């Protein structure tokens, strides 16, 4: 555990506490700050991760959430925060920084990480109660987190997948700014999937139709899009097998466990879309999505059988169909993946903030980030120019 040094209460009676677990903060107070737009920042999602043991001290994710209270004890703001002993499960890669710092004789870990564990989804990292002054709350939480890192001799504080507003507003709080990109699908009020295809160039339109046929080519594969009470424990057990199989191949140690999936079912199944593929009565693949107010968030994929184009169908095309049917504005398809461009997903910027304690190391990271931002912008511009939509044909 890191300790909070210095004054914890100011002249206005405001105080900041460290909650070593979301369960120590009332769900109603947390959710009032989080709002209802993004399911990944709600109290239930953090509780699923922490109470299942996925995000815990034992896995290198020790909760140290900052909770700002007013003089009456009411929660004004929350900064979800973890003490990390590694850089796994973050999707904003700083392992190169860690290696360089340690080669120079420094100690990079532990560090502080403001994020949603194992979740490369943009969302607020400074949760503010309605009626509270956003600027005041964000800055108090940010300064406290920096003070916490500094006073405990930690190398750094990282605020990843922050909103663009937070990224801009808090840059002057001694943070370095970083950008990256993901691929998102935007709903132009399409009536159905065929209307979406009509917006694409003829070559890409034909490619997607071919991929959807190939995904079900043997005639024995069925696709089931399940949400709410349509979900049952058998679906979660099947998805877990698929997730563990693929996770073990990709990164060695899958982050999520069965207890997490069952807790998600009990507390958030109305905000879950589980797309499952079944062949000859056996579940063989699945994709986990969460449903926001205007966005469908693609999260995890897994399979126990390989079939051509089945990944595209289950993860991307079914997500688009669901978003159109629900009238959602976009689909966020997770981290990385230039191959998503050909399937109608276009590049969108992601943002993170980084505080580095060591002045010399900070200068080196700042120089790197300046060059990285320019490269990301140039690449995103090029990718946008090669989006598969019909304007390419000079329409």
Describe the SSE topology:
Layout: E1 15-19, H1 27-34, H2 43-51, E2 61-63, E3 65-69, E4 75-79, E5 82-84, H3 95-103, E6 111-114, E7 127-128, H4 134-151, E8 156-162, H5 164-169, E9 176-186, H6 193-198, H7 202-215, E10 221-227, H8 233-251, H9 258-268, E11 272-279, E12 282-291, E13 295-303, H10 310-326, E14 330-335, E15 346-356, H11 359-385
Parallel strand pairs: 6-8, 13-14
Antiparallel strand pairs: 1-3, 2-5, 3-4, 4-7, 5-6, 8-15, 9-14, 9-15, 10-11, 11-12, 12-13
> How large is the share of residues in beta strands?
15-25%
CATH superfamily of the largest domain: Gcn5-related N-acetyltransferase (GNAT)
Radius of gyration: 22 Å
Ranges where pLDDT stays below 50 over 5 or more residues in a row are none
Cα shape: globular
What is the N-to-C order of secondary-structure elements (H for helix, E for strand)?
A: EHHEEEEHEEHEHEHHEHHEEEHEEH
Tell me what you see in this structure.
- The chain has 395 residues and is an alpha+beta fold.
- The protein has 2 domains: 15-180 and 349-385, Aminopeptidase (3-Layer(aba) Sandwich), CATH 3.40.630.30; 188-328, 3-Layer(aba) Sandwich (Aminopeptidase), CATH 3.40.630.30.
- Helix content is 36%, strand content 24%.
- It has helices at residues 27-34, 43-51, 95-103, 134-151, 164-169, 193-198, 202-215, 233-251, 258-268, 310-326, 359-385; strands at residues 15-19, 61-63, 65-69, 75-79, 82-84, 111-114, 127-128, 156-162, 176-186, 221-227, 272-279, 282-291, 295-303, 330-335, 346-356.
- The strands form 2 sheets. An 11-stranded mixed sheet has the order 2-5-6-8-15-9-14-13-12-11-10, with helices on both faces. A 4-stranded antiparallel sheet has the order 1-3-4-7, with helices on both faces.
